[in-house]
Amino acid sequence: MRLVRIIGKHILKTHPERNITAAIYSYWANQIIELFKKEQRAVYLHTKLVESTRGITNRLVGKLPDQIHNLKRKYRESGIITKRPKLDPPTTPTSSRCSSPSSPASPSSPLSRFDDIDSEAEKECSESLEWLKNSSHPWESVEQKWEETSSVRLSHLKNQSIDEYFKEYPALQKPTGYILLLQDFKTCYPANFNGLFENFPSYKKEIFKVASNRPNKDKFIKILLSLENVSEEVENLAAFLLIPSLLSVCTIRLKGNAKKVWRPSKSEVRDGFILHVRSDADIEAHIIKRKTKLAEFNLTLQPLIIVVGESLKEVQSYIVVVNTTKYFFNHIVEAVDSFLKIIFTLNAKFSEESKSAWLVIQQGFYKIKTNFDKTPTTTSTLLTELGI
Question: Are 151 and 102 in contact (CB under 8 A)?
Answer without folding.
Answer: no
